[in-house]
């Protein structure tokens, strides 16, 4: 995997495209050192195994950037993803998978960090308590980007709160949209499109 100079953090979307057939790819797991790799795999397996029936499609994979179909993602043209600058990586915080890179092949699922999911309660709190912030920190320390741009919405930011504690050599920038709530999603998408095209927001 090419080491990115810039890593952007973005949320998944509740709305997801169905179907897919692309085989597995997992740049996050490839980049993670042990024990963080094993921790993330174990937590993913736990969420999948304990989730209510019907929340996870067991067949069909597609790249995460195409699977997610919410208002933020609809503001990012397909050509921006396909012709992205090579120094840019986009990491997606996911209720099912914890962390995925935008090219990683993922299934369709109903999980969301912002919604309760029996028996876990709100998944953002569950993932945070299970150590997702430390897993994200391990990823950043492994790939050593110059800059991390945090474009997460509130609930997703809570899932990884504290990930920047103790980081050295990486500038963490937080981008907020005060007062807009869910209305910020299109603007978030526009910022991501700019990042993919020109390497900055």
Walk me through this protein's architecture.
This protein has 201 residues and is α/β, with parallel strands linked by helices. The protein has one domain (6-198). 34% of the residues lie in helices and 16% in strands. It has eight helices and nine strands. The chain has helices at 27-31, 36-50, 64-67, 78-82, 123-129, 132-143, 154-159, 185-198, and strands at residues 6-11, 62-63, 88-94, 98-101, 105-106, 116-117, 121-122, 147-150, 171-174. It has a five-stranded mixed β-sheet with strand order 4-3-1-8-9. Strands 2-5 form a two-stranded antiparallel sheet. The chain is globular and about 40 Å long. The mean pLDDT is 93.
Brief overview:
The protein is α/β, with parallel strands linked by helices and 201 residues long. Helix content is 34%, strand content 16%.
Give the helices and strands, then pairings:
Elements: E1 6-11, H1 27-31, H2 36-50, E2 62-63, H3 64-67, H4 78-82, E3 88-94, E4 98-101, E5 105-106, E6 116-117, E7 121-122, H5 123-129, H6 132-143, E8 147-150, H7 154-159, E9 171-174, H8 185-198
Parallel strand pairs: 1-3, 1-8, 8-9
Antiparallel strand pairs: 2-5, 3-4, 6-7
